[in-house]
Specification:
Elements: H1 4-11, H2 15-28, H3 41-48, H4 52-64, E1 68-71, E2 75-78, E3 83-84, E4 93-94, E5 97-102, H5 109-122, E6 126-131, H6 136-148, E7 153-156, H7 166-173, E8 180-183, E9 198-201, H8 203-216, E10 222-227, H9 233-247, E11 256-259, H10 264-277, E12 281-285, H11 287-299, E13 309-313, E14 326-329, H12 332-349, E15 357-360, E16 363-365
Parallel strand pairs: 5-6, 5-7, 7-8, 8-9, 9-15, 10-11, 10-12, 12-13, 13-14
Antiparallel strand pairs: 1-2, 3-4, 14-16
C-alpha cells in the first residue's frame, strides 16, 4: 500500500497517471475480468470525468505494463492471465485459457457470457472475450488472434446468417488447432456424421409456447412481426409458420410481416392492417419492436391487452414500459454454462471427445400484454 506521503505525491502528479492508477486498481479489484473489453473511450472518459486524450494516455500506460491490450478494430481488453499462482515450493504453471467470441457485448449475449464465465471461473480457467460486431471479416481476425494468444479452447457465436455458404464456414472450423463449441448457432446443412458440438436455444419450441398460449386465450387470427437478417430471424419465422399450422392459427394476408428494421411508420401501418383484418394478437420477434407495437396499437385505439394481445421474443427489456410484455425468455445463462461445460470436457478428452447437439427450450414469462394472469 502507498503511504500518505506517496498518495499525496500521486495526487499532485499528472492527471493521466492518476487515471491510470485508478484503472489499475479497478482491474486488480475485478471490475473487469481478464479478457473483458473496456468500455469505449468516450464512455469511459465520461465515467472518469476526464478528456478522451487524458484517458488515452492513461490506457497507454497500462498497455506498456501489459495490463491491457489494444486490438486493432476491436477495442481495448484486459490482458489474459499469464501464470496461475502456484502452491509454495511448486513451479508456476500456465493457467488454462478459453477464447469466447460473441457478435455483441451489449444485447442478448451478456447473459450468455455470464453463464460461460461462471463455469470457467469455477474451473479455474481464464476467459479471453472478443466481439465480432456482426462483421465476418473481424470475426476471422478475432479467432486468429485468440488462437495466436494461446487459448486451449474456443466458444464461438459465428455470423452464419451473413455468409454465402454458412455450412462451409462451420466445416472449416474443424481445422482449428483447438477444440471448439458453437453457442446459439448450429450447422445449417450438416452431413449425418457432422461432428460439431453446439448448444442453442430451441427457438421453434419457444415460438410454439407463445402461439399456444395465445390460442389458449381464444385468439385465432394471430400475426407475426419479425426481422430479416439477424442470427435467429429465419429460425423464429419458420417456427411461427410451423406453430400456426400445428395449432390452427388463421394466417390472413399481411399478418406476417418482416423487415430489416422497423420504423415507427411501418409499425403503425402494420397495426392499421391488423385492425382492418381482425388480427387480435401478434407474436413479435424483439422486445423493442414489441414495445413500439403496443404504443402504436394504443394510439390507433386498440387497448392492450383487451382488444390486442402482444407476446415478445427475447425478454431483454420486456418488463420496461407502461404495459409489461409477456415474453419468450431464451435460457441465455444456461446455454452459456452448458456450452462451457462441454468445451471443458472436450479439452480434457482430446480428439476422442463425444459430440453433443443440445437445444434448450425457453420459458414463457406471462406479464400484462397478453391478458392472462401474470405467472399463469
Amino acid at each position: 500500500m502507498k503511504s500518505a506521503k506517496e498518495r499525496d505525491s500521486f495526487l499532485r502528479g499528472p492527471k493521466y497517471l492518476q487515471v491510470a492508477e485508478r484503472l489499475r486498481r479497478e482491474i486488480a479489484d475485478g471490475a473487469w475480468a481478464p479478457g473483458t473489453q473496456l468500455p469505449v473511450e468516450k464512455e469511459l472518459a465520461g465515467t472518469l470525468a476526464v478528456s478522451v486524450n487524458t484517458l488515452r494516455r492513461a490506457v497507454s500506460e497500462l498497455v506498456d505494463e501489459g495490463i491491457v491490450q489494444r486490438r486493432q478494430g476491436a477495442g481495448t481488453f484486459v490482458a489474459p492471465p499469464g501464470e496461475a499462482v502456484a502452491e509454495e515450493g511448486e513451479q508456476p504453471r500456465s493457467r488454462r485459457l478459453v477464447g469466447v467470441l460473441v457478435p455483441s457485448t451489449t444485447y442478448y449475449y451478456p447473459r450468455v457470457v455470464d453463464g460461460i464465465q461462471r463455469v470457467l471461473r469455477d474451473a479455474g480457467v481464464g476467459v479471453l472475450l472478443a466481439s465480432s460486431k456482426y462483421d465476418p471479416a473481424l470475426e476471422r481476425e478475432e479467432v486468429r488472434a485468440m488462437v495466436d494468444s494461446g487459448v486451449q479452447g474456443l466458444l464461438l457465436v459465428p455470423n452464419l446468417h451473413l455468409l454465402d455458404d454458412p455450412q462451409a464456414h462451420v466445416d472449416a472450423l474443424h481445422r482449428l488447432p483447438v477444440p471448439h463449441v458453437l453457442v446459439e448457432r448450429f450447422p445449417p446443412a450438416p452431413a449425418p456424421d457432422d461432428p460439431t458440438t453446439y448448444v442453442t436455444t430451441d427457438h421453434p419450441g419457444g415460438v410454439c409456447l407463445a402461439v399456444r398460449h395465445l390460442r389458449s386465450l381464444g385468439h385465432r387470427r394471430i400475426g407475426h412481426l419479425g426481422r430479416l437478417r439477424t442470427g435467429t430471424a429465419d429460425i423464429v419465422a419458420r417456427g411461427f409458420d410451423e406453430a400456426a399450422e400445428l395449432l390452427g392459427v388463421e394466417v390472413v394476408d399481411g399478418s406476417v410481416a418482416r423487415q430489416d428494421h422497423w420504423t415507427e411508420e411501418g409499425i403503425t401501418a402494420y397495426v392499421r392492417h391488423c385492425a382492418e383484418a381482425g388480427i387480435t394478437a401478434v407474436f413479435c420477434h424483439g422486445d423493442r419492436d414489441a414495445a413500439a407495437l403496443v404504443v402504436a396499437a394504443r394510439r390507433h385505439g386498440l387497448s392492450v391487452p383487451d382488444a390486442f394481445a402482444v407476446v415478445a421474443y427475447d425478454d431483454e427489456v420486456a418488463e420496461v414500459g407502461d404495459v409489461p410484455l409477456t415474453a419468450v425468455s431464451p435460457p441465455k445463462e444456461e446455454v452459456g454454462a452448458l456450452a462451457a461445460q462441454l468445451l471443458l470436457s472436450r479439452m480434457e478428452s482430446g480428439p476422442g471427445a463425444v459430440s453433443h447437439r443440445v437445444r434448450i427450450q425457453p420459458r414463457l414469462i406471462v406479464r400484462a400484454s397478453c391478458g392472462a394472469a401474470p405467472g399463469g
